[in-house]
Amino acid sequence: MSLRKFIDHTLSSWMNEEGPESDIVLSSRVRLARNLQNHTFSTLLKDEEANAIIEQLEKQLQSLQEQHDLSMLKMAEMQLLEKRMLVEKHLISPHLAERSSYGACLLSSDEKVSIMFNEEDHIRIQCLMSGLQLTKALEKANELDDAIEEQVDYAFDEKRGYLTCCPTNVGTGLRASVMMHLPGLIITQQMNRIIPAINQLGLVVRGIYGEGSEALGNIFQISNQTTLGKSETDIVHDLTIVVQQIIAQERLAREALVSTMNIQLEDRVYRSLGVLAHSRIIETKEAAKCLSDVRLGIDLGYIKNISKTILNELMILMQPGFLQQYAGAELHPQERDYRRATFIRERLNMESFKE
């Protein structure tokens, strides 16, 4: 398979879009957790009831599938590598991928919508948008939520709101998050001061793949922790305000770096570009660090003929699942490091970069 064909068939269309504040905010995500009335929570489901829920939802949501161009993907019918690629694209959770016998999802053709079944909750509605578009993502999620609720009965309490498997999701069931590229705050060593302040506001900072993951390539996921006692609109509004403040701080940090160490910063950017353009073996962490530097160089105007969406692409395409799909075989870690370096070099060549 050629690299171009591989990219065209595996990248979500929204990854190549440039939304608001896309120089810093890579993506916005809204997720709604819902459960069916009179059914056991997913974590305690037996296979028979879990499969019955999938059959019920597939039948009841047929019109929703047709209206929103959604395709049903059943975990039991997918290869391990296919599920891993969906996780790497943030379209399903690792938890759902592990539920090989009774998990499923409805996925839109543009991959902006993913509705997971029998994950931690019976239904999890996820909407992804490029840049800072939390309000738009919430509107889409609410539209889908209303359509689903017309067909099924949700577990709902008048005082507590939507009932969920995890107590921290009770209430609105909403998790809103943004993926942010923050190299300026890392280089100027301000991020360690900012994270505690964010936590005090009821928000949480995680790595690129959420809870327990690393902030590869200076990419952080910032999301709400509180779901009870606030409306969905208020949660999204409050998160947006904080994100806008972080954007302002990141821009100030970048301006300070340019004014105080411009040559050193430019040298750092081009050294990283050199590593990516010429390495024959590269590990995930080093590749992520270099890609972050190159993306910063693009944003600051040092590099002019490489698309800024390259970070969005390569941070996903260099992951183990995609590398093995591209290779057409299962790879050992050292083989993946070789394939990763080759993949990145080829992708940079496609940008027709010339020194």
List the helices and strands and how they pair.
Layout: H1 3-10, E1 25-34, H2 47-60, H3 62-68, E2 70-74, H4 80-88, H5 94-98, E3 104-108, E4 113-117, E5 123-130, H6 134-149, E6 156-157, E7 161-162, E8 174-181, H7 183-187, H8 191-200, E9 203-206, E10 219-224, H9 232-278, H10 284-299, H11 310-317, H12 320-327, H13 333-350
Antiparallel strand pairs: 1-5, 1-8, 2-3, 3-4, 4-5, 6-7, 8-10, 9-10
Précis, in short:
48% of the residues lie in helices and 15% in strands. With 355 residues, it is α+β, with helices and mostly antiparallel strands.
Observed structural traits:
355 residues; alpha+beta; eight-stranded antiparallel sheet; 13 helices; 48% helix; 15% strand; globular
Could you explain how this protein is built, in words?
With 355 residues, the chain is of the alpha+beta class. Helix content is 48%, strand content 15%. The chain is built from 13 helices and 10 strands. Strands 2-3-4-5-1-8-10-9 form an 8-stranded antiparallel beta sheet. A two-stranded antiparallel ribbon has the order 6-7. Helix 9 packs across helix 10, helix 10 runs antiparallel to helix 11 and helix 12 (320-327) packs across helix 13. The longest helix has 47 residues, at 232-278. The chain is globular, with a radius of gyration of 21 Å.
